[in-house]
Specification:
Order of helices and strands: HHHHHH
Structural class: mainly alpha
Oligomer: single chain
Number of strands: 0
C-alpha cells in the first residue's frame, strides 16, 4: 500500500483529492485480483463506490479530476517513464489504472 501511495504522490496527485483515495483503493483491489481490470466501470468502480459510500459515477468523476491534476500539474516525465514513451494525451481512467497497475506489478 505504501508503494502505491508513494507512486501517486510522486506523480503529483495530491492526497487532498478524493480521487487520490479512490485510485489508491482501486489499485490495491487490482493488485489483489487482476480481473478487476477487465471490468473497470461495472466492477471496480462499484467496489470502490461501496467502500467509500458513494456512487460509481462519483468515483469516475473524482478519478478523472485526480488524473487531470496529474496531467496538468504533476510529474508528466515520471508518468512517461512508467509508460515507456511520451504520452500525447491524458490517459483515460482505465488506461491510467492499467498503467500504474502494470508498473506496480512489475516492481512488486
Amino acid at each position: 500500500m505504501n508503494n502505491v501511495r508513494t507512486l501517486l504522490l510522486k506523480l503529483g496527485v495530491r492526497s487532498t483529492l478524493r480521487g487520490f483515495h479512490f485510485i489508491l483503493y482501486a489499485l490495491q483491489l487490482c493488485l489483489d485480483r487482476e480481473d478487476y481490470l477487465l471490468s473497470i466501470y461495472k466492477t471496480l468502480y462499484m467496489e470502490v463506490a461501496l467502500h467509500f459510500g458513494t456512487s460509481r459515477d462519483n468515483v469516475d468523476h473524482c478519478m478523472r479530476t485526480a488524473i487531470s491534476y496529474c496531467w496538468c500539474r504533476g510529474n508528466r516525465k515520471l508518468l512517461d517513464s512508467i509508460v515507456g514513451y511520451e504520452l500525447k494525451q491524458k490517459p483515460a481512467n482505465g488506461e491510467f489504472i492499467d498503467i500504474l497497475y502494470n508498473y506496480l506489478y512489475q516492481e512488486g
